[in-house]
Structure formats: structure tokens, C-alpha cells
């Protein structure tokens, strides 16, 4: 059992999907969790009550709001940069404003949160930075230029920060999930069903099968358990690593 009692964990984008899974796992290991993300206020309140956590609103596309978030959070021991968005379109049709927003949320926000949190982690001699990248941080798919660029950038940021923190007690890693059935992916399932005439259930199977040798989704709980492991002493020497959890996607 990993004991994170006394540690404060900030998980961005934890009102839904993978972030909620990670926040749940960290809280289960004893960490004080700080939640962030958009969503229905009542649902957020229920989630906070369930995890014994607190919620701080911030739009991570806006650096000023990230500064306020980090100031309100106070010292953060475990920083999980998870908030992310997707937009699917061929590069020649990709809307410029979607590119800018996607890069701001998926990549630049992690620079800002790390910049604010890392000095305190180094001073205290312990810290964990976990960036939720993707298989798209290591490989590409068609029509996802901004997402692929942002996630490759996040893996690069992970490596650079790992070198700057090596030997300080702070580690920085990227988790690279394959398909996880969350609202972000449900939209892509619905688009596939609309394009192909498949049912939603058939579109799910076809989406996963295309890239994933196991033919199965990764779950938010599995990503959460992986994040908890990265906070354990067993992971003290794991740093700068893009770590796959993808049913074999990257083995191909
Ligand atoms: P999701 O849509 O369920 O959750 C995204 C979270 O980010 C939500 O809490 C949302 O409110 C928050 N968010 C979005 N824009 C924000 C902003 N501007 N400011 C603050 N919060 C914002 O998606 P998910 O699938 O759980 O994705 C979480 C992360 O995992 C993302 O970085 C995504 O790229 C990554 N990922 C997802 C998959 C997958 O298959 N679902 C695979 C690999 C990586």
C-alpha cells in the first residue's frame, strides 16, 4: 500500500474522466486532493465530498487564472497535469483558434503549473510531477495535428523538467494512455457512428480495435493506480519517462 498521507495533490481537469480517476486513487492513498475543471457545480460538490477534496476553478487556457489557481492551492507535492481537449480535422481545415486553445490547455498550462510548483517541491526535497500525455505523445494519427503536437510537446517538457530536477527528490514523468472511454472519446465514438452508420456500441468496438491489440479500453481507475505507483518510493528513480498504458498500442 502506498501511503500519501500529508501530501497535497493538485489534479487539473479532475471533474471528469481520467482526472477524476486519478484524484480518486490519490485520495484513496491518503493524499489531500485539489480538484479543478469545468462541470455542473452540484456534481463537483458531490465529487469533492466523496474524495474529501477541495475544488478550485480555473480556465487553464488563461495564464492569469493558472497563477491564481496555484496561489490558492498553496504548496503542492503531487502535480498532475491532466486537463486536455481534442479537436479532429485535417490540417488544412484546422481552425486557427482551436489550434491555439488546444496548445494552451494541453501543453502551455503544464509549463505554467510546473513553473509555479517546482521550486517548492525542490525546497522540500520531494515532489511528483505527472503529465498525462497520450499514445499521441509518441505516435500520430490522421486529423489530430494539434493534439499530436501538444502531446509530443508534453513528453518533451517532461524530459526537460526531469533533467532539471534529477537528484532533488522530485520526479517528472508522462503517462501515455491509449483509448480510455471518457467524454473526450465518447465524442469521437459518436462521430464514427454518424460517419459509418454503425451503432454506438459497434463504433466503440471499431475505434478500439483499430489501434489497440488488446481490443479493450484502459480505465480511469487503472491510470489512477499508475499515478499512485509513481508517487511511491519504488518509483523514486523513474523520471523523464513516457510510460505507456495502452493495451499494446505502442508495441506495433
Ligand atoms: P474528459 O473530457 O473526460 O476530461 C477533461 C477534463 O479537463 C475535464 O475535467 C474538463 O473540465 C477539463 N478541462 C478541459 N478544458 C479545460 C480548461 N480550459 N481549464 C480547466 N479544465 C479544463 O477527458 P479525458 O479523456 O479524461 O482526458 C483527460 C486527459 O487524458 C487529457 O489530457 C487527454 O488528452 C488525456 N488522454 C485521454 C485519452 C482517452 O482515451 N480518453 C487517452 C490519452 C490521453
Explain what this protein looks like in three dimensions.
- The chain is of the alpha/beta class.
- It has 2 domains: 8-179 and 219-251, Rossmann fold; 181-217, no CATH class.
- Helices cover 48% and strands 13% of the residues.
- The protein has helices at 17-28, 41-51, 63-73, 96-124, 145-165, 183-196, 200-211, 220-230, and strands spanning 8-11, 32-35, 54-55, 78-81, 127-132, 170-177, 242-245.
- A 7-stranded parallel sheet has the order 3-2-1-4-5-6-7, sandwiched between helices.
- β1, α1 (17-28) and β2 form a beta-alpha-beta unit.
- α1 packs across α8, α3 (63-73) packs parallel to α4 and α4 runs parallel beside α5 (145-165).
- It is globular.
- The model has no long low-confidence stretch (mean pLDDT 98).
- The structure holds nicotinamide-adenine-dinucleotide (NAD).
- Nicotinamide-adenine-dinucleotide binds next to α1, α4 and α6.
Which labels suit this protein?
alpha/beta, 252 residues, 7 strands, 2 domains, seven-stranded parallel β-sheet, Rossmann fold, binds nicotinamide-adenine-dinucleotide, single chain
Query: Major sheet: order of its strands?
Result: 3-2-1-4-5-6-7
What portion of the residues fall into strands of 2 or more residues? 5-15%
Small-molecule binders here are:
nicotinamide-adenine-dinucleotide
Shape: globular
**Computed Rg:** 18 Å
How would a crystallographer describe the biggest sheet?
7 strands, parallel
For the record, what CATH class of the largest domain applies? Answer: Alpha Beta
Structural class: alpha/beta
Mean pLDDT metric: 98
For the record, the count of structural domains works out to: 2
Continuous helix count = 8
Amino acid at each position: 500500500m502506498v501511503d500519501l498521507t500529508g501530501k497535497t495533490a493538485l489534479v487539473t481537469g479532475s471533474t471528469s474522466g481520467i482526472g477524476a480517476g486519478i484524484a480518486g486513487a490519490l485520495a484513496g492513498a491518503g493524499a489531500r486532493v485539489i480538484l479543478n475543471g469545468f462541470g455542473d457545480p452540484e456534481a463537483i460538490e458531490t465529487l469533492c465530498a466523496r474524495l474529501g477534496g477541495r475544488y478550485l476553478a480555473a480556465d487553464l487556457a488563461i495564464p492569469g487564472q493558472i497563477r491564481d489557481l496555484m496561489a490558492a492551492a498553496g504548496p503542492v507535492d503531487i502535480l498532475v497535469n491532466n486537463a486536455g481537449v481534442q479537436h479532429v480535422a485535417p490540417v488544412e481545415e484546422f481552425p486557427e483558434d482551436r489550434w491555439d486553445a488546444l496548445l494552451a490547455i494541453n501543453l502551455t498550462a503544464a509549463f505554467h503549473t510546473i513553473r509555479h510548483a517546482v521550486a517548492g517541491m525542490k525546497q522540500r526535497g520531494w515532489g511528483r510531477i505527472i503529465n498525462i500525455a497520450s499514445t499521441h505523445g509518441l505516435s500520430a494519427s490522421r486529423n489530430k495535428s494539434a493534439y499530436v503536437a501538444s502531446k509530443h510537446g508534453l513528453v518533451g517538457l517532461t524530459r526537460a523538467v526531469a533533467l532539471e530536477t534529477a537528484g532533488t527528490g522530485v520526479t517528472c514523468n508522462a503517462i501515455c494512455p491509449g483509448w480510455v472511454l471518457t467524454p473526450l472519446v465518447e465524442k469521437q465514438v459518436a462521430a464514427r457512428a454518424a460517419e459509418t452508420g454503425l451503432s454506438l456500441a459497434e463504433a466503440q468496438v471499431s475505434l478500439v480495435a483499430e489501434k489497440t491489440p488488446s481490443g479493450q479500453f484502459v480505465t480511469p481507475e487503472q491510470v489512477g493506480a499508475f499515478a499512485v505507483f509513481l508517487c511511491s518510493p519504488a518509483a523514486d528513480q523513474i523520471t523523464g519517462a513516457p510510460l505507456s498504458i495502452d493495451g499494446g498500442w505502442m508495441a506495433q
